[in-house]
């Protein structure tokens, strides 16, 4: 089988997309609490507020909680880009080579090979309309643009899922988490 080789040159949009995926995959509890709290605030203010000014403030805050889900991840992504630009450094650019047992990572800005990522160390996989994401841990991930895979996109998906034993998750919705848990559970019972 021919290995996969993909280049990723980040810009502000791709850094924001990576931060959003990181939030979706690793901050599910925070997201759930925000949703419940915002819904409770809005419902309580509507039912018991009697049209007072304070009820409008509470409704506004509840709505802000609902709509500002990615505010922290946006700030982080833009802060990283700003710090790199202020230091005169380019945004990250990498070439990923997917081999039999690991993903090799080459920094295109300085030509160095970085620490490889063995597939068994991949913590989570994510996907959006334009890219696949592989996370080494909750703080560091890699964005693989689908455009760089061409006609081999589906083959790449199967390859990475088979090697890591994980599924690509679009968002950390309860249904997707349940599907991931069931798949991991069935794999665990197969090895017993």
List key phrases describing it:
192 residues; PH-domain like; 4-stranded mixed beta sheet
How would you concisely characterize the structure shown here?
By secondary structure, the chain is an alpha+beta fold. It has six helices and eight strands; from the N terminus they run βααααββββββαβα. The chain has a domain at 4-9 and 92-190: Roll (PH-domain like), CATH 2.30.29.
Can you give a write-up of this model?
Helix 1 (12-26) runs antiparallel to helix 4 and helix 2 runs antiparallel to helix 3 (53-67). It contains six helices and eight strands. The two termini are 30 Å apart. Strand 5 (124-127) and strand 6 (131-137) form a beta hairpin. It has a domain at 4-9 and 92-190: PH-domain like (Roll), CATH 2.30.29.30. The mean pLDDT is 88. It is 50% helix and 22% strand. The chain has 192 residues and is α+β, with helices and mostly antiparallel strands. The strands form two sheets. A four-stranded antiparallel sheet has the order 1-2-3-4, with no helix packed on it. It has a four-stranded mixed sheet with strand order 7-6-5-8, covered by helices on one side. The longest helix has 21 residues, at 28-48.
């Amino acid at each position: 089988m021919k290995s996969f080789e993909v280049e990723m040159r980040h810009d502000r949009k791709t850094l924001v997309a990576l931060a959003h995926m990181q939030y979706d995959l690793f901050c599910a509890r925070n997201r759930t609490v925000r949703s419940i709290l915002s819904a409770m605030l809005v419902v309580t203010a509507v039912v018991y507020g009697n049209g007072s000014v304070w009820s409008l403030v509470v409704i506004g805050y509840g709505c802000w909680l609902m709509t500002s889900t990615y505010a922290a991840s946006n700030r982080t992504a833009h802060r990283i880009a700003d710090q790199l630009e202020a230091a005169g450094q380019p945004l990250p650019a990498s070439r990923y080579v997917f081999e039999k047992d690991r993903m090799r990572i080459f920094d295109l800005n300085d030509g160095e090979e970085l620490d490889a990522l063995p597939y068994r160390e991949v913590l989570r996989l994510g996907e959006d309309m334009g890219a696949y994401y592989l996370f080494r841990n909750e703080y560091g991930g890699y964005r693989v643009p689908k455009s760089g895979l061409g006609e081999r996109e589906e083959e790449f998906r199967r390859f990475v899922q088979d090697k890591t034993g994980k599924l690509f998750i679009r968002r950390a919705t309860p249904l997707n988490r349940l599907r991931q848990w069931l798949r991991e559970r069935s794999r665990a019972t197969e090895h017993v």
